[in-house]
TrEMBL record:
The lineage of its organism: Eukaryota, Metazoa, Ecdysozoa, Arthropoda, Hexapoda. One of its GO terms (molecular function) is RNA-directed DNA polymerase activity. Keywords: Nucleotidyltransferase, RNA-directed DNA polymerase, Transferase. The keyword Transferase applies. This is RNA-directed DNA polymerase from mobile element jockey. Gene3D superfamilies: Endonuclease/exonuclease/phosphatase. It comes from the Eukaryota. InterPro entries: Endo/exonu/phosph_ase_sf (IPR036691), Endo/exonuclease/phosphatase (IPR005135). Residues 11-119 form the Endonuclease/exonuclease/phosphatase domain.
Amino acid sequence: TCFVKLTCPKIYIGATYVPPKNPLTIADLDLITKIGSPLILGGDFNAKHSSWNNHRANANGNTLHQHFRNNTYSINHPNALTHYRANANPSTIDFYLTTSALGFDCSVIDEGNSDHLPVLLIPNNSSPTSVGIDIVTDWTKYNKITNNYNIISHLESASDIDDSISSVTSFMHACVRRASCKVNSSTNRHKRMVADDFLLSLIRLRRRLRSFYQRHCIPQTAKQMCDISATIKRRIKSAPPRLAGATSFIQKS
């Protein structure tokens, strides 16, 4: 588990991973939930319980549920399943623990090839779309920019490690800003996608095929997934440009 403390606004943001064979203890939960407040901690807890959409609880889930009932934090989980593994029942083991006074909406994003779906957490009284501006990052551009960075391979002291981490972090933040734009919510491609019934049907079909493939590992199913993904990409690219009217964060020289 790792945390970042922000000072303005003051908030602790953390990420965690509990390996499947590692027991989650009350002492562990005391440590990570009392590090500071307000707190947002997200990750793969490998903890199953019916309270967050699992058919059956495991030991970690029972421990977390017991600790949750005796404390004041919230468990923010999506209504959809987050983990699809071959030869195993899908489950919800990726979620957030929060101590903020804000309420949150939690949902999954059907993207990527991992057996874990990304889980999105948004304050429900200050959704990014409510202000009329979205932030869009061109990750292809980001990858091209970051390929030019040379990591220092010879680190001789703790100070060298700290300096290297600071340098990499600053570089990554700068690259995200260079690859990002502000977009009016009304022109955001995602909103147009919601109205595309055919595209949504393809996405749902790909999700079902992925679940089937992870259970049965049939090569033909993997090929079908690739074909559908290619069709989805072509469909999205044929939509009006997402960045129309966008304003770059970086001033052109």
